[in-house]
Amino acid sequence: MSHFLDLIRDHRGGPGDLIARLGALAADPEAAGISPGAMIRHLDALAFRLDGGGAPDLAAQAYDLAAALAGRDGGRWTLAAAEARLRDLCARGRFAEADPVVARLRAADANRLRPRLMEDLIDRAWLLELRGEAEASVQCYRLALDLNGGAPGLVSRDGDPLAKKIKNLRRLQLDALIAAGAFDEAVALHETTRRLIGAGPLAGYNMVAAASLAGRPGIDYAELRPPRPILAPELKFTEPPPPLTSEPGDLEAPSQYLAFVDGCRAFPRSNLVVKDGHLIYDLAAHPRRRDVLLQDGVNPDQIVMAAFGERRALVEVPEDSLSIEVGLSMFGLQSRNYGHWFCEFVPRMLAYNDPRCPDGIPLCIDDHMPATHEEVVRLVDTRDRPIIKLPPRPVAFGRLGLAPVPAFFPFEMRPGQRVYDTIWPSDILVDLRTRILDSARARGALSGRTGRRLFISRKAFAQRQLVNEVEIAEALRSHGFEVITPETMTFLEQVDAFHAADIIVGSSSSALTNGLFCRPECRILGLIHANLSFNFRGYTSFIEAGGAQITFLRGATTNEDGHAFHASYRVAPSAVVAALEHLQRPTSVPPPLQPHVARSIVGRLLGALPFARQPGGQ
Questions:
Q1: CA–CA distance from 375 to each of 29, 330, 440, 509 (Å)?
Q2: Closest CA to 508 of 559, 471, 548, 552
Q3: What number of CA atoms fall less than 13 Å from residue 504's CA on the CB side?
Q4: Around Cβ 481, how many Cβ atoms within 10 Å?
Q5: Cβ atoms within 10 Å of 33's Cβ, excluding its own
Q6: 411-429: per-residue pLDDT in tens?
C-alpha cells in the first residue's frame, strides 16, 4: 500500500502540513510504499498544482523534495524550486532572501530559463512602479540586473536602462525622505543600490550663497557691483496687451562678485561646488528656494547625484576625480544651450576680466559645448586666458574662481508656482555687447552693412517649431527678407548679421537673443506660441538693453507635448506681413546704454536705465 499517494489524496490538513509529512515519507521510501521515481513524478505534479493555486512557496518545497530524491539528477527540480521561490519572495517583499536564489539561477544550467525570469521581474517591477511602490519596484529591477550579471542591455517597459530606472526611482525616494528631514535614512537607502547605478556615497551639505562665506578661511570674496535697480521692460504685442500668467522678475539686480574657493570639488555640467560642509550655490540658497526645482543631479546629462531640501542637500561624493590646480568656472547646468549660455555663463567673463582676477588662470568649460561657445569666450576675454575643456568627471580644484548669474534665474519652478519671468539687468548686458562688438571690429568681422532684413530659421530644431516656417519664409522673400540659420554660422557671423539688420523676424528662441547686437534702429518681430506664461519680459529686457526694439506676435499652438515653453505653433503669413507694416512706421530711436564704469550711487541708478545715451552710437 502506498502511504505516500494516500497522503496526497486524503490529507485533510493545510498544504504546509502536507509538505512536511511528505518530506518525512520521502526520507524513508520503504515506509512510503512507493519508489523514489514515482514519488518524484507525484511531487512534480503536486508542485505544479500548488504553484497554479497561488502557493509558489509550497511548490518550491515540493520541487526541493523531488530534487533531493533525484540526487545528482535533481538539477531540473532545483531550478524549478528556485524559480517558484523567487516569485514567492518578490510577491512577499522579502527581497534580501532572494539573493541566494538568484545566485542559483545564475548557474549555467539556467541559461535557457533566465531570459524569461528577467522579463518576469521587469514586468513585476513596472507594475509596482505604476502603483507607486518605489522600493519594491527598485528591488525587482535590481534582481533582474543581478540575474543578468550586472551587464547592460536590459530595459524597462518604458525604454529606460534598468540602472537609470533604479536611479530615478531612488531620486523620488530620496526627495521624500529629505522633505521629511530624514537625511541619514536617505544616505543609508542610497548605499544599498549605489554600486548598481555606478554612484558614489552621499554626504550632507548646508546650502549657502558665496557671499555668506566671505572672510572665512579658504574663501576670497570681492563685490564688483552692488545691488542696483532694474527698470521694468515695456512689453509690446501686435494685439492688445494680453493677461500674462507669469510672475514678473525681481527689479533689483543682485550683487555681482568675484570669489575664489580653495580646496573644493565641482561637477562639470552642474552648478554644484562643495567645500567642507557647504554646498556653494547661490540659487539653492536664495530666499525663494522653496519655490524652485533644482535640476542639478537630475537632468539626463548630469554626472552627479544630488537631492535638495530647503537648507540642506545630499550630494554624491566622487570616488575618482580629476585634479586641477586652479581654474575659473565657466561650466554648469545647461551650459551647452545657447540661451542659457549667454544669460548665465558669459556674464561671468566680466568678473574674470576685472583687474582683481589674476592673470594666467585658465577658464574651465564643459567639453560638450558647441564651438560657438568657445568663440564667445575668446571674444570677451581680455586676458588671453588658456581654456580647459572638462570631461564629464568630478574635479578636485586647488582653487576655483566663481562669479554669479546676473539675476535670479530659476531653471524650473515647483508645480503650482507661476513661471518666473526673469528681468535682466541692462548694465551687464551693455558691457558684454560693447566688449563683443569692439572685439568683432578689431578682428574686421563687422561688414559695415546696414539695411538687411532677416528671417531666422528654426527648422533644424524639434522643440518650439514654427510648423509653417517655409510658408512664412516664402511670404517674406517678396518683402526683401533673407533666411539665415544661426546654428550653421560662426558666432562672429551671427553678430555681423544681426548688427547689419534693420528688421528681423524669427521664433522667440535662443538665436533671437543675438538681438542684443543689433543697432538701436533695428526692429524685431518675435514669433511665439499662445502660452501666456512665456518669458516675454526676459526676452525684452535682454534684447532691448542694446537699443533694438522687440514686438511679439503670438500664433496658434499646435502641439503642447513636453514643456509648455517649447510648444510648436503656427502663425498666419498675413499676420506677419501686417505686423511688419506697423513696425516700419517711424518712431524715435533710443540709443543703447553706456558700458559700465565706476560711478556714484546716483550715477549707478541713472546708468541702470535702459536707454542712457552712449557715445559713438553702436
A1: 85, 13, 11, 20
A2: 552
A3: 35
A4: 21
A5: 14
A6: 899 999 999 999 999 999 9
